[in-house]
């Protein structure tokens, strides 16, 4: 905002102090432009959602409580969603041909859009009924920066036109979904969120916009994370061998033709796989957490943040700060998160505070458990069942695209064509 004071916070200790202050530092003002400009909510919807945002009675706070309650480990709604997604993803994996050449990012994107949307929205999922909406969604997503930032139309008329046209098509599709009782077969999580909106008096059109926004939350991070995890492992033969050995050791019956990877077991007994996953998250997290000061605020009895200012905490910078991660902070190291790493107590504390791929404190992403479950079980199955080879002499891994507004994990600046082949001896295996 023109003339507004901005503070950039990169110290892990200060970031924690900022995020723990939920009275004089507020997150909801950062969301209002997203709801109004990016999603197109009308003023009645904005007023309804953000009135009394941080009180027990406010709708915004209730949305966050419902998300947390629905996606906590052990809840029926999370178990249901994980079971649905797993079955749909692995059903596609089992039907893959023995050999094919794919554009890896496009392949992951298509797979996750099809399975996540059908699992979440049920039998009347708009994207299943009209697959062309997948292209429409990504055309909208690629151009929403101009809407979110409030870029004047005359500076970027083509992007504005594309963003608004595609958004209208998507909102219309979800309006039809709601009017056709699509929620009847949706997963419990989506039913809970939409039911909250209906109960609070949110219009059908605004509810349709909320459903559209939920897709960004559901697949916005899992798609790029899955891509980076796959290519980071397959492009390193020694690492691939080590992780495969870890995963194979967790299988209960090595002679069985049916393979079922257990998420909890992976987390507990595959330290190299988990460390690699965390390192991918560290290297590719690009979003900046934002707060607004409701009043003059003193942080740690030392730093004064003036009222009316914006406080930014850029994850991408925090994740590569050499004072926290060492002189090789900008280098991928799959062993960095191993518990066997020799670190001082101070280093461990600082790194724990600095590692924030899912945000932190009261804005910690409620979907982090679901995202990790989906990524790790899918990637683990692909690692066991398939080989991936470059179509050239070696893997030419695209760089991360840092030019776009980082609403999610960083995407690659381009795609990479690879050969996906069934592993010898694993062709008859079925993943469940």
TrEMBL record:
<comment type="similarity">
    <text>Belongs to the cytochrome P450 family.</text>
</comment>
<feature type="transmembrane region" description="Helical">
    <location>
        <begin position="210"/>
        <end position="234"/>
    </location>
</feature>
<keyword id="KW-0479">Metal-binding</keyword>
<protein>
    <submittedName>
        <fullName>Cholesterol 7-alpha-monooxygenase</fullName>
    </submittedName>
</protein>
<keyword id="KW-0349">Heme</keyword>
<keyword id="KW-0408">Iron</keyword>
<dbReference type="GO" id="GO:0004497">
    <property type="term" value="F:monooxygenase activity"/>
</dbReference>
<dbReference type="GO" id="GO:0016705">
    <property type="term" value="F:oxidoreductase activity, acting on paired donors, with incorporation or reduction of molecular oxygen"/>
</dbReference>
<keyword id="KW-1133">Transmembrane helix</keyword>
<dbReference type="GO" id="GO:0005506">
    <property type="term" value="F:iron ion binding"/>
</dbReference>
<keyword id="KW-0812">Transmembrane</keyword>
<dbReference type="InterPro" id="IPR002403">
    <property type="entry name" value="Cyt_P450_E_grp-IV"/>
</dbReference>
<keyword id="KW-0560">Oxidoreductase</keyword>
<keyword id="KW-0503">Monooxygenase</keyword>
<keyword id="KW-0472">Membrane</keyword>
<dbReference type="InterPro" id="IPR001128">
    <property type="entry name" value="Cyt_P450"/>
</dbReference>
<dbReference type="InterPro" id="IPR017972">
    <property type="entry name" value="Cyt_P450_CS"/>
</dbReference>
<dbReference type="InterPro" id="IPR053007">
    <property type="entry name" value="CYP450_monoxygenase_sec-met"/>
</dbReference>
<dbReference type="GO" id="GO:0020037">
    <property type="term" value="F:heme binding"/>
</dbReference>
<feature type="binding site" description="axial binding residue">
    <location>
        <position position="365"/>
    </location>
    <ligand>
        <name>heme</name>
    </ligand>
</feature>
<dbReference type="InterPro" id="IPR036396">
    <property type="entry name" value="Cyt_P450_sf"/>
</dbReference>
<dbReference type="Pfam" id="PF00067">
    <property type="entry name" value="p450"/>
</dbReference>
